[in-house]
Amino acid sequence: MDQKHLQLALNDGHFIPVLGFGTSIPNKVPKSKIIEATKLAIDAGFRHIDAAYLYQNEEEVGLAIRSKIADGIVKREDIFYTSKLWPTFSKPELVQPALEMSLKKLQLDYVDLYLIHFPTPLQPGEDIIPRDEHGKLLFDTVDLCDTWAAMEKCKELGLAKCIGVSNFNRRQLEMILNKPGLKYKPVCNQVECHPYLNQSKLLAFCKSKDIALVAYCALGTSRDERWVDPASPVLLEDPVLCAMAKKHQRSPAQIALRYQMQRGVVVLAHSLNENRIKENMQVFEFQLTSEDMKILDGLDRNFRYNTADYLAGHPNHPFFDEY
């Protein structure tokens, strides 16, 4: 299949591969695992790698990418690499240094996409989740429009080819879109999205503004206890999803990924298992019918795996709005 058909045009003229490989791993998994998995993903055909400062493994991911470039498997321009600005770097003067810190770890000259990870500015410092001695979250009062202006500067300097946001609701997106003197609108909004949380209203809004929706937790979640309630339902065991997988002689994961693609959503798949990584890449080999799509739409229950409870109490917490 022509690689161009596997990409979505962004509003700034760049293209994003519609299937990406997620690099977040649970705390208890050794970081060497992500080097191995990222290499396997590139070998399997993944060209979109999604990472973040938060995951604390950009050195390892960068090493995997550079080793595949050195092997002649890919060129740098073949890889679409995403990183994210953590909220402790929301102050405009911290945005560029934060991106440069990621680039130094990666040993790359630029990222293809840089996202504001959460619309919840936190106090700068070493702690990812800064709290006072009573355990109260230390948030910062930063105008996200000022953070965005600093993101625009990173784009102009060539440190990031594209800029976007993550975990923004409609109101927060509109705040950026209505910013006086806006130079570049976000190319995408990366949010949790899967059959149990299909984000249909946010998707329609993003499409109306020519903003791509990128889905994380598309297969449910790795059930990392830092972020996710272990008692959450297991998406890939859903009987409807499993019945459809059987009908198409595919895996439930492939059905969940294909569902997003056919809705025009860019989708991230995460696995450390070689067979599953290869299997996820086979999502281009079949199609769901409009009836299948309707059935999967019916699974929506507005259920969120990543509730971002650790940011509860922040006035800008994004998940309290309807969408």
Walk me through this protein's architecture.
With 323 residues, the chain is an alpha/beta fold. The mean pLDDT is 94. It has a single domain, classed as TIM Barrel (Alpha-Beta Barrel), CATH 3.20.20. The longest helix is centred in the N-terminal third of the chain and has 15 residues. Helices cover 33% and strands 14% of the residues. It has ten helices and ten strands. The strands form two sheets. It has an eight-stranded parallel beta barrel, surrounded by five helices. A two-stranded antiparallel sheet has the order 1-2. Helix 1 crosses helix 2, helix 2 crosses helix 3 and helix 7 crosses helix 8.
Quick overview of this protein structure:
With 323 residues, this protein is α/β, with parallel strands linked by helices. It has helices spanning 32-44, 58-70, 92-106, 144-156, 170-177, 200-208, 239-248, 252-262, 274-281, 290-297; strands at residues 7-9, 15-17, 19-22, 48-50, 80-85, 111-116, 160-166, 188-192, 212-216, 266-269.
Question: Could you list some keywords that capture this structure?
Answer:
TIM Barrel, 14% strand, alpha/beta, 323 residues, 8-stranded parallel beta barrel, globular, 10 helices, NADP_OxRdtase_dom, two-stranded antiparallel ribbon
What does the secondary structure layout of this molecule look like, with pairings?
Elements: E1 7-9, E2 15-17, E3 19-22, H1 32-44, E4 48-50, H2 58-70, E5 80-85, H3 92-106, E6 111-116, H4 144-156, E7 160-166, H5 170-177, E8 188-192, H6 200-208, E9 212-216, H7 239-248, H8 252-262, E10 266-269, H9 274-281, H10 290-297
Parallel strand pairs: 3-4, 3-10, 4-5, 5-6, 6-7, 7-8, 8-9, 9-10
Antiparallel strand pairs: 1-2
Helix pairs in contact: 1-2, 1-9, 2-3, 3-4, 7-8
